Amino acid sequence: MHRGGLFRSALVAAALSHAGCAADPDVVAVAVAPPTPELLELAGDIAVSDPSALHDGDDYWVISTGEQLPIRRSPDLRAFERVGGAFEQLPAWVAEEVPEASTFWSPDLAYFNGQYHLYYAVSTLGDNQSCIGHATAEALPSLGEWADRGPVICSTRADNWNAIDPNVLQDEQGTHWLVLGSFRSGIKLIGLDEEGMRAGADLIPLAKRQDIGIQAPALAHRDGWYYLFASLGAGDEHALIVGRSASIRGPYLDREGLDLWEGGGSLLLEAGDRYRGPGSNDVLDVDGQHYNFFHSYDSEDANEARLRVSTLVWDREGFPISAGP
User: Please, what sign has the CA dihedral across residues 141, 176, 283, 290?
Assistant: First the structure.
C-alpha cells in the first residue's frame, strides 16, 4: 500500500539544562516536522463531482453526483474506470417527496452489517424541499440491483436546514451516524440504527456560518478524535475547513479553539492557480492511512470538476494536512 510522505529531518529546536542540577546532562528538545502530504497522479475517467470513496480490501470505489450515480473503480488508487452506476432511474418515492428533482446528488458509500449502504440526496438548486435516500446491495457495482430503502430524512420549505450531502461514520462504540446539511442553519447530525435508517428524532447541530454558506460535511476518526470537514462557499469558490471533537456529537473546535457552530474552522484547502474550488470531500481510512478525496475545478479544461486525491498527514497537534487543490 502506498504511504504518502516521509518524515522530514528532525530539527534541533533548543538545548535546555536543569537549573541548579549541575550533574544532570543537558536535555535536547527535538522538533519533528510533520510528513508531507502527496497529491496522487490520477488517470482515466476522473470527471467527478462530490466524490465518496470506499476500499473493499482489493479495489478502490468512487461514487459521485450524476445520472444513475456513476461508480468508478481503481485497483491502485491511480487509474480510474467507470464501471456503471447504482440506479437506472430515481426511486418511485422521489416523485411524491421531491417532485421537482431530476437526478441524484452527493452520494455516500459505506459498508456495515454485511451490506453495502448507499446514501444520496434528491433536491433542486436553491430549494430545501429535499430528502436523503438509502439503498443496500450485496456487491459492487450492482447497477439496478440496489434495494431501495426509502428516505432516511427529509426537509421541507418550512425548515431552516437542508437534507442533502450525507456522510456516514461509525463511532468508537459501533454506532453509525449520518452528518448532513447545506447552507441555511448549517450542518446537522443524526443517529442510524443497525439497518442504516434514522434512529430517534435528534437533529444535532454541528457547524454553521453566517458570512458564507457551509455544506458537504464529512466525518473521520483518528486517535480518539472525530474530525468534521466541510466546504465553504459554492462551485469554484469552495474552500475546505476542518475542526475536531472528542465526541462525535461535538462540539467541533478548530486549531484556535473556536467552535465550528460559532463560525470556526481551520483551513484545509483553498483555490490554486489552475485548480479552483476544492470541496465536497470524503476521507477514506485504509489501514490507518487516510486519503482525502475531493473535487476541484480545472481552469485549463473548461472549469470542469475533476477528482483529486491526496494523502492526509497529521501535524504535531493532530490536525490534518492535505496536498492540493
Answer: negative
Q: Please state, in angstroms and rounded to a whole number, the distance separating the CA atoms of residues 283 and 293.
A: 6
- Measured CA to CA, the distance from residue 151 to residue 123 in angstroms comes to 12
Q: Are 220 and 283 in contact (CB under 8 A)?
A: yes
* Pairwise CA distance, residues 193 & 208, whole Å: 26
Q: Give the sheet arrangement for strand 214-222, strand by strand.
A: 214-222, 225-232, 239-245, 266-269
Q: How far is CA 216 from the centre of its chain?
A: 7
Cis before residue 251, ω within 30 degrees of 0? yes
Helix (H, G, I), strand (E, B) or coil at 8: coil
**What one-character DSSP code corresponds to residue 39?**
B
Q: Is 45 helix (H, G, I), strand (E, B) or coil?
A: coil
Backbone φ and ψ of 198, nearest 5°: -65, 135
Task: Please indicate, yes or no, if residue 225 is contained in any of the structural domains.
Answer: yes
Examine residue 9 and state whether it is found in any structural domain, yes or no.
no
In a domain, 26, yes or no: no
**C-alpha cell read off for 317:** 497537534
pLDDT digits (tens, 9 = 90+) for 280-322: 999 999 999 999 999 999 999 999 999 999 999 999 999 999 9
Number of domains within the chain: 1
Tell me the C-alpha distance between 48 and 304, whole Å. Answer: 9
